[in-house]
Amino acid sequence: MQNYQEQLPQQQQQQPHYDMMNSGRPANEMVNPQIMNTAFQNQYRAATPQQRPAQFTPQQLNQIQQQQQQQQQQQQHMQTHAQQFQQQLQQPQPMQQQQLLQTKPQMIPQHIPLESSLQQTTHWKDQLQLLEASRKSNVTHFYARHAAMNSRRGKAESVKTQSLVEVTKALLESEVQVQEQQAKQKLSHDEEEGGEGEIDEDLIPRIKLKSFPDQLWGALDLSGQDIPVLAPNLFKYEFLTKLYLNGNNLTSVPKEIKHLKHLRVLDLSNNQLTSVPYEMGLLFHMKYLYLFDNNLTSLPQEFGNLIELNFLGIEGNPHFDLGLAKILAQKGTRSLILHLRDNVPITVEEPARKWIKLNDDQVAIKEDDETAAERATPEDSDEGDSGETFTVYTHNVLCHHYATVKMFPHTPSWALNWDYRRAIIQKQLLASNADIICLQEVESQSYEQFWTPLFSEHGYKGLFQAKNRSKRFSAEAAKKVDGCAIFYKSDVFGLYLNHPVDYTQLVLNSNKYEKTDDVFNRFQSRDNVGLVTVLGHKKTNEKIVVANTHLHWDPAYNDVKAVQVGVLVQEMESVVSKLASDPKSVPMVICGDLNSTLDSAVYEFLSTGFSKEHHDINGRNYGSFTEQGFSHPFNLRSAYDHIGHTKFTNFTPNFTDVLDYVFYTPGNLQVKGLLGGLDDDYTDHFVGLPNIHLGSDHLSLFAKFKFNKRSSTTTSMGTSRRDIGGGGRSRKT
């Protein structure tokens, strides 16, 4: 096998190369080996009076000499191992060399033909130096051998060898990458916000990443084995954080690699790859990706998702896209990723969510014709219903104050802009033509200046409740506080009652809630709110209670969420008591972003009517809530439970699950249709929302209901059909 070093361009040979045996420092800057070895063994010290030989007895001197001899023997033993390992890096063993020559052609090192000025940049010098280190790593199980050697050395403070990844880290840490920082600031989403600044607790990712606490290993070395095809079972090891596949005969990478979402390091150097699958762009947490010495010509646009990538090795691909290589040479890996992210072409079609019809038994009707299923609309569920139906739409629209680069680095700059996202959300809201619309994270100023005028033009009236913090802010600052909003069609419903719910104030100011330490230490500082309204359906004279809320986000405070929803339901009980003596006789709908999964105390409480010994609330003291358990008299069910729920309503790189719900009372309402989730064929191109098609990190939910029967109950409010027609005043707060 030819020696790569002899064939490198002259300018590459002149630049300092990093020695993998010496902590990543340039070979021409290394300290004298003898001094280094003694320093690492804590022997390089100035002589003190206590250390002078004259002060030691002959027996002590003999003991010291024996210790020094042992240390010298250990040092010689380690140096021998290091020399053998260095020889192994420089040239394969004779038997290995014969096997390699028999199975793959003799490779002549090639390079990307960049102009000479670009080859002198710091970023491209990194490429060249690490390319040379990579070519020395193509022996069988190089990384495993390296790890084993360093492990055998144990705690001995001698010079340890460095792998390709460690050399990369040393290079990057030693450079002041001014251009990259400038590019990062230039492409930041936060220009109009005046910089990123400190993160408010509401901006922290809502749910933490789940890990594998019982997994004892996470790295797999399959390097240097001439593997032509990867076995499918490899991609079942979802716990892997490092995967080494360099020095093989791979011509393709299976798309199933997308399942290895925890990968931080992937080495595919020295293979026969002509392309890599776009699914590699879904490995959001990748930090070091080596693609040296292949036949790649470009990168998938989905690589714009790899926002955590510190280094991308592409040198040694002679036909690689010069435009992309130029960006990397001038500005580095991060700027290349940002370029791919912000210049994503609209090649993926806008997602078409299917409308799912349910029969009288509340079972989804399967459409024989796939095209007919895609074209189905809520109006198709109206057969024979005689105007006894209504639709409900709920969506967390992602307040633009939370849509920062720190929260959503995977989203293109222009797609994260509020004007762009608002236009998408507006289009979807109006296209739904829903009778009742419940929104969360609506900014106060946007509600007054944009949403209210917009919906008014389309026949809606609105209600709004801002978070409690708005009361502590100045009038100008309060405009930026978000809250919950309900819009309803004034020709379909009339307003009877609007009851704002401020969870913290209700608990602190009401005698029915015990003031425990958990109330003051955990609950008091959360300022989430809700709205409880009573609407009258004009065609049927039915009254319905509609609640909209946004619970606290932090999974470390699931007990707080349970108390918040407990307070909400108690307030609904108070409202229902004004409508009928039997609380189960009044139709109810609860919408919102509950920030709670299907296994939470919140979901258990709402769906079963009781929750006491749930792990979310165990060990907490909230008075009767925890002593007697959370309970309510209503019969509630999640509308989406009829179709097994969507796969998710919240989609981010670190968390994908159901957080949003539409609960209803099946005793007096029937589900006629539901808006389905997103297809896998669509989501496979993204690591999270928002994106170019969807304006929030949450999916909207859309349900169609039918009244089971008309109520003849006269309420204490003295309402009548004529009163419904008269509407009612919207109480805005």
From TrEMBL:
**One short Pfam family name for this protein?**
LRR_1
Q: Which PROSITE patterns match?
A: LRR (PS51450)
The Endonuclease/exonuclease/phosphatase domain sits at 394-698
Keyword annotations for this protein?
Cytoplasm, Exonuclease, Hydrolase, Leucine-rich repeat, Magnesium, Metal-binding, Nuclease, Nucleus, Repeat, RNA-binding, Transcription, Transcription regulation
Domain of life of the organism encoding this protein:
Eukaryota
Q: Give the EC number(s) listed in the UniProt record.
A: 3.1.13.4
What are the Low complexity biased-composition ranges?
A: 1-15, 55-96
User: Subcellular localization, per the record?
Assistant: Cytoplasm; Nucleus
Q: Which GO terms describe its cellular component?
A: cytoplasm; nucleus
Citing just one GO molecular function, the answer is:
metal ion binding
Region Disordered: list its residue ranges. Answer: 1-29, 44-96, 712-733
So where does this one cross the membrane?
none
Mark out the compositionally biased spans (Polar residues): 44-54
Required co-factor(s) are:
Mg(2+)
Q: Which reaction does it catalyse?
A: Exonucleolytic cleavage of poly(A) to 5'-AMP
Q: Which family does it belong to?
A: Belongs to the CCR4/nocturin family.
User: Which PANTHER family did the record assign?
Assistant: CARBON CATABOLITE REPRESSOR PROTEIN 4, POLY(A)-SPECIFIC RIBONUCLEASE
Question: Can you say what this protein is called?
Answer: CCR4-Not complex 3'-5'-exoribonuclease subunit Ccr4
